[in-house]
Design brief:
flat, three-stranded antiparallel β-sheet, Substrate Binding Domain Of Dnak, Chain:A, Domain 2
């Protein structure tokens, strides 16, 4: 078994079930920081917290841009047979522009400090707006296709066909 306490000290013990022998070892850090060194590290972390947050936001923006490009291209590929080039080409142009904003000519991510955050956010919004129109057309086409299928199934029975039938009321005697 092993146990790690709050100070990072690891206690490991083992017992041989056959012989009943038991051994244990305590593993401690060979060097420990003094209280002053700990406070210095905390101050250093606080000093760089703002820069870390800025870099985190830039990394998240690049990840979002990459995700938008991937998902949009995938949607366009999966729906290629249902869309016209006139619908797809503007979206692809926006995607190419967004990729150039976050990648170099070799397709490698550019340094996050070189990214223009506002331009990337604007381009993502343009792609979302363009895809909204494409998605609307896809759903309208799917709805029309379903309506045709339902119309074909019910096409055998005309609404104007009236069927006369005789019936007799049977009362149940209890």
């Amino acid at each position: 078994t092993f146990d790690i306490d709050a100070n990072g000290i690891v206690d490991v013990s083992a017992k041989d079930m056959g012989t009943g022998k038991e051994q244990s070892i305590k593993i401690e850090s060979a060097t420990s920081l003094s209280e002053d060194e700990i406070q210095d590290k905390i101050a250093e972390a606080e000093k760089f917290a703002e820069e870390d947050q800025r870099r985190k936001a830039k990394v998240e923006l690049r990840n979002m841009a990459d995700q938008v490009v991937y998902q949009t291209r995938r949607t366009l590929e999966e729906s290629a047979d249902k869309l016209d080039d006139s619908d797809v080409d503007p979206v692809k142009a926006h995607l190419d522009e967004l990729e150039k904003m976050v990648q170099d000519d070799d397709g490698k991510p550019i340094d996050i400090d070189a990214m223009d955050d506002a331009a990337i956010q604007g381009k993502v919004k343009e792609i979302e707006e363009a895809m909204h129109g494409v998605s609307t057309k896809l759903y309208e086409a799917a709805a029309a296709e379903m309506a045709q299928q339902e119309g074909g199934e019910d096409g055998d029975i005309a609404v104007d066909d009236v069927v006369d039938a005789d019936f007799e009321v049977v009362e149940d005697e209890d």
